[in-house]
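Give me the fold.
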Amino acid sequence: MRFLLVEDNIDLAQTVLDRLGMDGHAVDWAASLLTAWDFLAVAQYDVIFLDVMLPDGDGRDFLAQFRRTRNETPVIVMTARSAISDRVALLDTGADDYITKPFDFNELEARVRAVVRRRQGAATNHRSFGDLIYNPANATVSVAGVQQELRNRELRLFEILIGNPEHIFSKAQLVDRLFSSTEEISENAIEVYIARLRKKIDGSVTRIETVRGIGYRLIKT
């Protein structure tokens, strides 16, 4: 997944970047609200992590303005405020969830899965297509009943494809979803990851189809 982190605490931001990066996620970091708007003007995100107190404004005002744009991207507010009234106000403003600082990363990852699941209208974390099963909670992939080991970036590519099977993703879209703005990656890198993933799901009743001149999609054979 691709995340936008809006946080001015350098140590916390770096910790989040390192942890999510280790899992193969792409994260753009904005240390101010102005930078956050710049990122949102050029990229789409699966989840936004939003601090409340930023050097150039209040995250709650940012959230209210963001929701007025009709953007439905899930927002998890990271706050030191623990009063119930504060949390209720955040949810009423448009936050999908909140997490109180300091937080455990296992909890943060669980909250990400929960808000994404709610947005997708899914009852469980499991995603399946044909004989493929993906469980985001423990990052496991089963192919025709056999568990496969996927590297982090392969797993994130698989997550994108199985999250919207039969939808055609262009190379540019996959680059945007898999890599952050600071990573200089050519679209040819997508071909490499697609080739690796095809080998991992070989023997399945599904396959990754190349739609010539357009992109890739996961289909049943």
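The chain has two domains: 2-120, 153-220.
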